[in-house]
Structure to design on (628 residues):
């Protein structure tokens, strides 16, 4: 190559270097700066005369000085075009001692003075700030947010993620995302992930499927997940936003149940209302037959008519009971109730029955509670009535009523010395229209205890029985401490 | 019966209820005339045209709630639009199948209903209604 040509190519090189928007520094094997461009002067605040001939380390913060010559040596041992510091964060320092983050590209350049390296430096302060801002936004998001790369490795999480899943962020970053998915769904997940990355778009995950996540302790919970693909310089990553929908699910189930209940009550009402009508017609016409056709009917016909009449009356009571049952607690208001007064009233109402059966009722001091008054009265009345009704032959009923209270509820009991109940029937007796005793011995419709159960339940409580056949029964029920 | 009225009207789509109620009224000898209408519209038409064709003026109306087409409540709305003079001589008693408390609440808001009874109409019920009618209790107090 002759001198003219050489001169020409040097000029061309200089023109190119000056024209590039990046800071360019030409460094030789010894680490000395051989050449810099205008951008370098601007970026570092040195003039090129201050730089040329100096060690390149003057552009690097002091804490990196010790290892830098070694890195340089490694580069020159096998020079190839590459980015510097793979994976490490790189910093440069200006003349005024201000550090800034950089990205550095290295290009080996063979010259007559030996192999040199053409260093291209980009100030990434703005990008780093944007990244930091992104990190802050993610951190302060009210949802759990997780940044995942194409391989499914978690690269960033926020505080909410730590809270929601019970992991420390150091435990999650670098892990496969599948750690947060219940085991039974893990195997299928990489496939879903690949599908997403093959056509990334902002969308919610799982399209119609129920999604579940797993905490560190293995417990699972329902989630809703939004996926946002984010293009970075190197690759597409996905930002997943995760919401715990346990509460929502619970609420949905509750609403569904309420709706079902309403439906059922409506059905119950319609059925019992509309059933009454034909029933009334039957009994009306029995009455007509009895009153207007009496002389034309013989005794046998009259007896049959009586049977029809009895059955109709019974059905009428059953249908009305069903209606009353469906209406329990509806439109009622919670009021403060002095149970002593309430139970005394019930006992007063039952005076006739109590005297006829020589029953003795022992009443403990009862508390004041909040409840539905009519229903609660009915509950006590049914239990006391049963205690008297199901007495043993020749043994006057002895009934004791009392309660104990804790922070959550009051538990009442009504104990008797009556015929008792086989443990097989402890559940059944609370079902509507279930009766244990034949109508010959004890009449009834099998509605009282079903009402009691519903009344306890509308008070947030429950009812159950402790009993032994022939040894009396103790009915216990709870009433939650209800706020008015 | 001592407390007789001139005319009682029964409005009920259920023929057998009308038959039964008419029979109770007849047995009690409670009215000279009993008019039965199987729809609210027919009853209303009767009330609207009765002067021109010299129909009998009912003193008491027993009205069913659940009827196809115009129901008892809708009948009452139309009834309110009638000439006030005609209304004042009439008493409307609602007859229902069940004592639904919602119905009772609604009944209070109509302003023209005089009473609310559960079917079937009985001798005792009829006597009570007629007693009240003659003591003129209906218009002074709404007796629910």
């Amino acid at each position: 190559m002759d001198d003219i040509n050489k001169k020409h190519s040097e000029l061309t090189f200089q023109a190119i270097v000056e024209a590039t928007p990046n800071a360019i520094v030409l460094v030789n094997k010894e680490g000395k700066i051989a050449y810099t461009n205008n951008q370098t002067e601007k970026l570092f605040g040195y003039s090129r005369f201050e730089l040329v001939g100096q060690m390149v380390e003057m552009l690097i913060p002091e804490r990196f000085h010790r290892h830098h010559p070694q890195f340089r040596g490694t580069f020159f041992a096998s020079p190839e075009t590459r980015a510097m510091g793979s994976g490490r964060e790189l910093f440069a320092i200006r003349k005024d001692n201000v550090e800034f983050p950089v990205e550095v590209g290295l290009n080996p350049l063979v010259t007559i003075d030996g192999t040199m390296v053409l260093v291209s430096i980009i100030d990434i302060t703005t990008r780093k700030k944007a990244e930091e801002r992104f990190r802050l936004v993610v951190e302060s998001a009210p949802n759990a947010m997780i940044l995942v790369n194409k391989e499914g490795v978690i690269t960033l999480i926020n505080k909410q993620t730590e809270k929601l899943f019970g992991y420390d962020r150091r435990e999650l970053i670098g892990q496969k995302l599948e750690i947060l998915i219940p085991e039974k769904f893990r195997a299928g997940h990489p496939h879903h992930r690949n599908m997403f990355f093959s056509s990334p778009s902002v969308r919610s995950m799982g399209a119609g499927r129920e999604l579940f996540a797993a905490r560190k302790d293995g417990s699972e919970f329902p989630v809703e997940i939004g996926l946002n693909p984010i293009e970075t310089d190197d690759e597409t990553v996905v930002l997943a936003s995760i919401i715990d929908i346990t509460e929502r699910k619970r609420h949905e189930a509750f609403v569904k149940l309420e709706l079902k209940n309403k439906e059922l009550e409506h059905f119950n009402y319609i059925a019992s209302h509309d059933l009454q009508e034909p029933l009334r017609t039957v009994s009306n016409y029995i009455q007509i037959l009895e009153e207007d056709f009496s002389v034309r009917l013989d005794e046998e016909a009259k007896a049959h008519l009586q049977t029809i009449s009895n059955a109709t009356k019974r059905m009428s009571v059953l249908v009305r009971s069903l209606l009353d049952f469906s209406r329990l607690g509806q439109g009622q208001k919670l009021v403060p109730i002095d149970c002593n007064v309430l139970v005394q009233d019930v006992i007063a109402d039952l005076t006739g029955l109590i005297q006829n059966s020589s029953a003795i009722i022992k009443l403990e001091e009862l508390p004041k509670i909040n409840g539905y008054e009519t229903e609660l009265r009915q509950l006590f009345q049914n239990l006391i009535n049963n205690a008297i009704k199901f007495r043993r032959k020749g043994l006057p009923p002895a009934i004791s009523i009392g309660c104990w209270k804790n922070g959550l509820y009051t538990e009442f009991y009504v104990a008797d010395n009556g015929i008792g109940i086989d443990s097989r029937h402890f559940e059944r007796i609370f079902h509507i229209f279930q009766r244990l005793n034949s109508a010959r011995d004890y009449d009834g419709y099998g509605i009282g205890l079903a009402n009691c159960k519903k009344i306890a339940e509308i008070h947030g409580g429950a009812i159950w029985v402790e009993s032994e056949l022939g040894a009396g029964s103790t009915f216990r029920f709870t009433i939650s401490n209800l706020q008015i | 019966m001592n407390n007789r009225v001139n005319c009682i009207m029964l409005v009920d789509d259920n023929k057998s209820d009308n038959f039964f109620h008419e029979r109770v009224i007849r047995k009690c000898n409670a009215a000279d005339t009993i008019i039965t209408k199987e729809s609210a519209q027919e009853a209303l038409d009767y009330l609207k045209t009765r002067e021109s064709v010299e129909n009998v003026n009912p003193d008491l109306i027993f009205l069913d709630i659940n009827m196809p087409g115009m129901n008892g409540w809708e009948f009452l709305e139309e009834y309110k639009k009638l000439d006030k003079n005609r209304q004042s001589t009439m008493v409307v008693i609602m007859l229902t199948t069940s004592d639904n408390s919602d119905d009772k609440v609604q009944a209070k808001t109509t302003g023209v209903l005089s009473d609310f009874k559960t079917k079937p109409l009985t001798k005792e019920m009829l006597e009570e209604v007629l007693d009240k009618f003659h003591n003129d209790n209906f218009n002074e107090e709404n007796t629910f």
